[in-house]
Amino acid sequence: MGDDPRVGVVGSCNVDYVVRVAHLARAGETVRGADVLRLPGGKGANQAVAAARLGAAVTMIGCVGRDADAELITASLAENGVDVTGLRRSERPTGAAFISVDDAGENQIVLSPGANVDLDTSASDLESFDVVLAQLEAPAKAVAEASLRARRLVLNVAPVAPVAVEVLDRCAVVVANEVEAESLDLARLGHVIVTLGARGATHLRFGREVATVAAPRVAALDTVGAGDAFCAAYAVQFAKGADAYDALTYAVVAGALATRASGAQGSLATDQEVRAWLARG
């Protein structure tokens, strides 16, 4: 592949309402938080921005409402170099996520999908991309369509949701965290990346380990968006034809660097930043 791969992102666009708290609330507990931050988010939009910052030519295929939140998302995508011609409008409100982040950087999230449920890929030229990247915040129908039409689909099975076996079989790569991986038949799937948080990630081929990479140590402020940064980085490297170990190493560093600031898109790394960390060994 060339140095500027074409990546289509089929996924969600949300506005994140983020509040920092000393500790995450338990059931029935009220905790006092700081001022609310209103930030562009959604797993699809996060991954689109991350991939663009890492040097890919990215098109966002999603759905937003006709409200102020839609304008915030569209402006953020465009400012980061993402092609927004694949965004459609819905009469539903733009999707929203309500996020609490504690002093350790851990989070709780409540998601209202809104316009995302109307995401439709029928007018999108999915076949034209080197890689299509999708997540399960997108409707199941859109993910299934992407698996049929994309030349190569990288599917992030987050958040946990039912996925048809035939859809998984058509994926070039499946990305899951440790909890999400429990729902997969790893021995059946050709390429599965399991993210391990601060411990890095591992690549499995039909259930057998191909490569494992440890994560670099960074001062984590907010883990929201780290998984999205990882997925985008891996998809970009996969589109470029990187080998299993190099792609995994690059993605682990990109994911770690994304924890350094608040918000899902607050500190998404550039290709130059990731390579600078890699050069440090």
Structure description:
The structure is a single chain. By secondary structure, the chain is α/β, with parallel strands linked by helices. It has a single domain (6-21, 35-279), classed as UDP-N-acetylmuramoyl-L-alanine:D-glutamate ligase. It contains 8 helices and 13 strands. It has helices at 43-53, 68-79, 140-149, 165-170, 178-181, 226-240, 244-257, 271-279, and strands at residues 6-10, 14-20, 37-41, 57-64, 87-89, 95-101, 107-112, 131-135, 153-156, 173-177, 192-195, 201-205, 208-213.
Instruction: Tell me the CATH superfamily.
Output: Ribokinase
Radius of gyration: 17 Å
Report how far apart the termini are: 26 Å
* CATH topology annotation: UDP-N-acetylmuramoyl-L-alanine:D-glutamate ligase
Shape call: globular
Report the β-strand fraction as a percent range.
Answer: 15-25%
Count of alpha and pi helical runs: 8
- Class by helix and strand content? alpha/beta
Please outline the major beta sheet.
9 strands, mixed
What top-tier CATH class fits best?
A: Alpha Beta
What is the number of independent domains?
1
Regions with little confidence, pLDDT below 50 for 5+ residues? none
Strand order across the biggest sheet? Answer: 5-4-1-8-9-10-11-12-13
Mean pLDDT: 92
Number of strands: 13
Structure in a nutshell:
The chain is built from eight helices and 13 strands. It has 281 residues and is α/β, with parallel strands linked by helices.
